[in-house]
Amino acid sequence: MALAHVQDPQVELILARSSLGICRITHLMRGVPGRCLTAGLDCVDQQLRTTIERIVGAVLDGSGWLQAGLPLRMGGLGLTHSKLMAGAAFTASALGFAARAQSLGLPLEASLPTADLREAVASLPQRGAAVVELTKAVASNSQLEVRDAKVTSQRFWAEVIHLHGLEQLQLHSTARSLSRLKELNSPVASAWLTPPPAPSLGLSFGPGEFRLLLKWRLGLPIMTVPAACLRCGEIMDVFGDHVMCCPRASHTVRHGFLADALGRVVALSGGHVEHEVAVAGRQRPADLLISGWGPRALAVDVTVRHGLATFDNCGEDRLDRAAHTKHIKYDALCREAQLDFQVFGVSTLGAAAKEALNLVRTLRAKLSERFGKREGRELG
């Protein structure tokens, strides 16, 4: 396949999402019963799986393959499996025709469920009121009355299938995987997968780095066998969690990189930024001190947490609690200095605390004011 000649996994993944899988054969699945396409859909999905494994640089297990087929917002790679969606596509198309037949006054037979529709509906996960109602309707062999337009939408049925897939993934997950999936379902946890590579903006990865991040996202081992940590001597897990939270490792590079990147965007929005500002002597609540946004300067504390250090209370909940602890420590101090105070809390898997998301929204608004709505949205 020509995609293999790109030799940049970040670019390959973006191209794969836009050119492989069901986007090429949706029209076939909507008009042809799934049983007539089984062999072809198996071939398409096998080609897709081979492509993903080459991009990731590892063989996918069952859970990794299932997760890769989920949308980005559910923690997947946005590479939907064709065979899973055949029933959804045909059901949406058939119901759309039935609704149209009623409005055109066509004979009753035009809106009766066919054997092909019954087979398609039977293939759908039996979850949600809409699916149950539709199953009863096609089983009764009576005229299909489409009361709710959403059931004629393939996107609606795709959501049913994706949610079922996520539930199945969670049902058979370890405690670590449950924590990982919870963090990946956070609003901005997948944002790093969407921009095209732009080295001048810091939006690019080296091939090895990108593959490692994909393995981490899909819950695949990063090391073949456990090894001793060079800093503390503890035996590291094969998933790399110890590296992210080793008590003897310095995580200042990670923290500093995030603070610098945030500072550059703030400066781009028109704000004035100072780094590592001390308030009241040795107290340092301001990794960034932002002025020029309002009547009072804003002290921002950047906080990074590794959500898989332990497998309970992870994700946004842990980040929000970390932010609460920072507020207890610094709120009064900043009030005395006549500063506003916010915590920019994120996890290593991309989850962000509510306060951090609010700051990102503020940045987008500032960028839109300065550069125009479209350009500001892209920069933010």
Please indicate the count of domains. Answer: 2
Enumerate the spans where pLDDT stays under 50 for 5 or more consecutive residues.
311-315
Number of strands: 6
Separation of termini? Answer: 35 Å
Rg result: 25 Å
Q: Biggest sheet: strands, sense, closure?
A: 4 strands, mixed
Element-by-element helix/strand order: HHHHHHHHHHEEHHEEEHEHH
**What is the strand content?**
5-15%
Give the CA-based shape: globular
Continuous helix count: 15
Calculate the mean pLDDT score and round it.
86
Specify the structural class: alpha+beta
User: Helix fraction?
Assistant: 40-55%
- List the strand order in the largest sheet: 3-4-5-6
Q: What features would you describe in this structure?
A:
There is one protein chain. With 380 residues, the protein is of the alpha+beta class. It has two domains: 1-220, no CATH class; 252-379, Trna Endonuclease, Chain: A, domain 1. Helices cover 51% and strands 8% of the residues. It is globular. The relative contact order is 0.09. Residues 311-315 have low confidence and may be disordered.
